[in-house]
Design goal:
- The chain has 279 residues and is mostly helical.
- It has ten helices and no strands.
- The two termini are 36 Å apart.
Length: 279
């Protein structure tokens, strides 16, 4: 009886943990960006219709799921559904030539659309991350200058990330005539996205600590170098991916991996990870 009770309690705890993780994901901008990532991953020659349908279905699922959980519908979610609904309609009714064009330039279209959306949200003074942040912060801080500043900066980081992805994809398609180039279609675009993700995680605590420090409190903000902690692992993974997919010459892949390891060691010595003080 005790064993069954313990098993049930463990199962309940795991379910509760799973719900918290899912809730945290749905309450973050990453949920609104997931359909775009799915579209970029699936799109390719002969796959535009399936990619658009999958992205539209996922965006609709997030809107319905968020609404049933009591969350307000976000601007990004509305944009997701509208954009991918248009792509589904194009996939169904456009000519073969237009579909071929979309399969080649669809990646740039999505990145440019995201850059435009993020910029417009800043221009109208409603950075798109603000709606997500309000669901995780008490109402009394919503109009605080620091709270709004953090969301402006995070949104700008996504403008930069989307812009890098759009520029890389455009160069790959327009100059290299290769929409599946290892560097322009994958690595550089992923780097822009990972930077934005890193900034989103790093900046709120950094900005808060800086504000407290300026107010005379005994607080030491993390070094800005921590924003680049992802770089060594990203470089190492790039080398491994290049070798696994035969996108890089063997020597080049090994050199990239070694460079990544060296960067990690050097960064670890110059900017060691601060040890947590036991509670």
């Amino acid at each position: 009886m005790t064993d069954n009770s313990t098993t049930n309690e463990t199962h309940i705890v795991e379910q509760s943990k799973g719900r918290r993780i899912l809730s945290a994901f749905l309450n973050s901008p990453f949920a609104g960006l997931a359909p775009w990532i799915l579209m970029a991953f699936l799109n390719g020659p002969g796959r535009f219709e399936e990619a658009a349908a999958a992205a539209f279905g996922l965006s609709l699922l997030f809107v319905i799921g968020g609404h049933r959980r009591g969350s307000k519908i976000k601007l990004l979610e509305v944009f997701d559904v509208t954009y991918f609904a248009a792509m589904v309609l194009l996939a169904q009714f456009a000519s073969a030539d237009i579909i071929d064009w979309l399969e080649k330039w669809g990646g740039e279209m999505t990145n440019i659309a995201l850059v435009s959306f993020a910029l417009v949200s800043i221009i109208i003074r409603q950075p798109f991350t603000l709606q997500y942040a309000k669901e995780q912060a008490p109402k009394e801080v919503w109009d605080h200058p620091l709270f709004r500043h953090i969301n402006y900066m995070i949104t700008w980081s996504w403008v930069f990330g989307f812009g890098v992805a759009a520029a890389a994809g455009l160069y790959g398609d327009a100059v290299l005539d290769d929409n599946n180039n290892f560097w322009t279609a994958w690595i550089i675009q992923l780097a822009g996205t990972v930077f934005a993700l890193s900034f989103t995680e790093f900046y709120p605590d950094y900005a808060s600590d800086r504000a407290q420090q300026k107010a005379g409190e005994d607080v030491s903000p993390q070094s800005l170098a921590r924003l680049w902690d992802w770089v060594p692992i990203f470089v190492i993974v790039t080398g491994i991916a290049g070798l696994v997919t035969d996108s890089l010459h063997e020597v080049t892949g090994i050199v990239i991996i070694v460079v990544g390891i060296i960067i990690k060691v050097v960064m670890g010595r110059i900017w060691p990870t601060p040890k947590k003080t036991p509670a």
